[in-house]
Amino acid sequence: MTAICFDHVSKWYPRYQSLSYGIKSSLLHLSETFRSLKRERVRVLEDVSFRIEKGETVGLIGPNGAGKSTSLALMAGVVEAETGKVVVAGRVSPLLELGAGFHFDLTGAENIVLHGVLLGLTRREVSSKMKAIIDFSELEACIHQPLRTYSSGMIARLGFAIASHLDPEILLIDEILSVGDLAFQLKCNAKIDEFKRQQVTMVLVSHAMDHVQRLCDRVIWLEKGRIVGEGAPSMIVAEYEKSAQLRHVESRPSAA
Ligand SMILES: Nc1ncnc2c1ncn2[C@@H]1O[C@H](COP(=O)(O)OP(=O)(O)O)[C@@H](O)[C@H]1O
Ligand SMILES: [Mg+2]
């Protein structure tokens, strides 16, 4: 059964570059600035098609700006595709990028409730899961402090703890596993293994190729909004690493 299907998906975002002409001149010609902001769009996904089957763990890899987070946002229904079709069958976890969907003036505990309620759980259902989430996150000492006092590692812990305890059918994980400390990474890996056994569908965005190789059944490689490779993790990761190495060599100033 297919859990996620992208059918010729393209996605544009407005380009916020006009201010590079100079803040002052942009402010002096505000209407012109707004008009050009409206007009200019940049394509971040171009004719992307793939299928992810129920129970599969698929890695999304590629350089910064390739469109990985945008693909997850489309899967989560946070943004819509301009052309093509995205079909998702199953309850999607709220976990996107680090801190996305969090409210930084609310406490950790309040954020847990907020996520649960947004996902359609009743307050009672959330309360019944509260202890397990806090225990998993190991943040009991500061769970009643506002989120703005948390480190990025702590936010990653809370994010993974919430997303993994709200009975997701589809779990989206965006560059979050490498932020926590080693002990927490091991705990997340164990949880992911458990989800695999339970046939939870997972899409994992990561720059940690060892994670990708260990956890994923299949890898999709994006470059500039297009799929350039897809297949067995060992093969695609090797090709990706070769291309990154090549780019690194090409970008080095040549020895004169
Ligand atoms: N909300 C947005 N508005 C405008 N441009 C965006 C937005 N989100 C992402 N982009 C642009 O889309 C491109 C792809 O971004 P993203 O999907 O975040 O890439 P990745 O996660 O692979 O690093 C980037 O060039 C980024 O600047
Ligand atoms: Mg990203």
Characterization of the model:
By secondary structure, the protein is of the alpha/beta class. The protein has 2 domains: 2-93 and 168-251, P-loop containing nucleotide triphosphate hydrolases (Rossmann fold); 101-167. The protein is built from 9 helices and 8 strands. The protein has helices at residues 23-28, 30-39, 68-76, 108-118, 123-137, 152-165, 182-197, 209-215, 233-251, and strands at residues 2-14, 41-53, 57-61, 83-88, 170-174, 201-205, 218-223, 226-231. A hairpin with a 2-residue loop joins strand 7 (218-223) and strand 8. The longest helix is centred in the last third of the chain and has 19 residues, at 233-251. The radius of gyration is 20 Å and the shape is globular. Bound molecules: adenosine-5'-diphosphate and magnesium ion. Adenosine-5'-diphosphate binds at residues 13-14, 44, 62, 64-70. Magnesium ion (MG) is lined by residues 68-69, 174.
SSE arrangement:
Layout: E1 2-14, H1 23-28, H2 30-39, E2 41-53, E3 57-61, H3 68-76, E4 83-88, H4 108-118, H5 123-137, H6 152-165, E5 170-174, H7 182-197, E6 201-205, H8 209-215, E7 218-223, E8 226-231, H9 233-251
Parallel strand pairs: 3-6, 3-7, 5-6
Antiparallel strand pairs: 1-2, 1-4, 7-8
Bound molecules: adenosine-5'-diphosphate (ADP) and magnesium ion (MG).
Residues 68-69, 174 line the site of magnesium ion.
